[in-house]
Amino acid sequence: MLDLKDRIKIQKISTYLLDSSNAIALTGAGISTNSGIPHFRGKGGIWDIYKPEIYGNIEAYQKNPEKFWKMAEKIAPKLFSAKPNPGHYALAELEKMNIIKGIITQNIDQLHHKAGSIIVYEVHGNINHFICLNCKKTYSKKEISKIKKKNLLIPPRCKICQSPLKPSVILFGETLPSFEYFKSKELVAKADILLVAGSSLSVNPIATFPLHTLKNGGKLIIINDEPTYLDDKADIVIINKTEIILPLILEQIKKERFK
Ligand SMILES: NC(=O)c1ccc[n+]([C@@H]2O[C@H](COP(=O)([O-])OP(=O)(O)OC[C@H]3O[C@@H](n4cnc5c(N)ncnc54)[C@H](O)[C@@H]3O)[C@@H](O)[C@H]2O)c1
Ligand SMILES: [Zn+2]
To answer: Residue 164: CB partners within 8 Å, gap ≥ 6?
Structure first.
C-alpha cells in the first residue's frame, strides 16, 4: 500500500530526475523477485536452499564444479524463461526518455536487456556466457549446448584444454569483470543522482558505490523493501516494492514533463 508520505516522495524523486543531467540506476536481486527469481538473503532467498559456502564461492566451485553445475541446471530454466516486470520496464522507458543514463546491475538474469534497456553494466556477469578458468577461453550459451549434446559430461569441458567450464557469473571470492567494474565506478562517481532499486547494499564492492556519488555531491535515492545501511545518508528512501514504485515515478515524470 502506498501512503501519503510515499506519494510525496515519488513526486520529489520525479522532480529530481527531471532536473538531473546524469542519473544512474543501480539494481539488485530485489528488482527481479516479481519476475519469479528469488533474491539471495532472507526468507525465501536462494541461500535458504543452496548454502553460499557450498554453492556461492569460487573455492567451493573449484573443489566440486559438478555440484555447482547440478544446482545451476536446476535453477537455469527459471532464469532463462523469466520475463521483465513493471520495474524493469519503467527503467527502460526512463532511459528512452533520456532521464536515466545507464543501469549498473548486480543481477545476472538479463531482465534489463529483455525490457529494452540499452546501457547496462552487468558487474556480476550474466547467464549467457561461460568461461574456462584455466585457459580463459569464453563460450556462448549456444556453444555450451552443442558441447553438452556431443558429450554428456557435467560440467562441460573446454575444447582447448579440457578443464571444466564455468558460467561467467561472479561467485564470492572472484574479482569483478574489470571493464564493467571500472566503468560503473566512474559512472557512480559522476552521477548527479544514483537511484538504487532492489538491493540490500550488502555485497561488496558494489555496496560502497553509492558513497562515491555522495562524496561528489550527487543525490542518493533508495527503493528497497527493507532498510539498508545507507538509509541515513540517502536523500530519499522508499521502503516498498520496486515493481510498484518505479512505474509510479515514470507516470509522475510523464505528467510533469508533458503538462
Ligand atoms: N536476479 C538475479 O540475477 C539475482 C538473484 C539473486 C541473487 N543475485 C545476486 O545476488 C547478489 C546479492 O546482491 P543484491 O543486493 O542484488 O541482492 P540481495 O538479495 O542481497 O538483496 C535484495 C534486496 O531486495 C529486497 N527486495 C526483494 N524483493 C523486492 C521487491 N520486489 N522490491 C523491492 N525490494 C525487494 C530484499 O529485501 C533485499 O533487501 C548479487 O551478487 C547478485 O549477483 C542475482
Ligand atoms: Zn580451457
So the answer is: 65, 66, 69, 133, 155, 156, 157, 158
